[in-house]
User: What shape does this take?
Amino acid sequence: MNLWVANKPGVWVGCWILSAFAYFSSAKASLIEINPQNYTFSRPTVNGSYNYGDQTGRQLIDGAYGTASIGANLGNGPAYEWIAWTATPSAKTVNIDFNFGSLAQINRIDVGSLQDRPGNVVLPNVYVYQSVNGTTWSAVAQLVTPVSTINNGKHFELQLNDLSIDAPYVRVTIENNVTNWAFVDEVDFWKDSSKVVQSVPESGTTASMVAGSMALLFFLRGRFKA
Assistant: This one.
């Protein structure tokens, strides 16, 4: 498994880190997956060589992961696991708003994606917000992925750690990074039962992400699947 660690926003180090494996091992026991009730998109999905639409309305939270091969048929048809958007002259981002139904403590978010540079697909940038009412949003974290050919032909989890979310609504914004296409197969939310976080204020306004992101440790973890 390859592990990329951001010790500063926008500064990435690619290497094998033994201490990181110890971290994952010790932290795993305290992680509890939190499932949203539903979600909505701010922009419609786009089809290409295959159907990249959300055919059930739950494909991002159904536990069905894709592979590094976009068109692979894993039992539900070619590319079934993948949801995709293309950049337009007026929009490079899509907001995915998740509704948990009540206050949800979230300390980690994993976004499944891939890179197929010859196919005009690279890893997206990810921005996270929280809200008490689904209307007014407060910035939580950001993960800016560097464009590199070393990521070609791989399935990844874009992992945002050490979050302090306690809100009923979470927005995950996917930003097309340089190229036209952005793909996502799953978005997983995790609570660390060893931590307690404070609920977002009722008057939550959009806050600066600079200070918060400087304190966060982000992991970009590669999954290699056939």
Remarks:
- The longest helix spans residues 18-28.
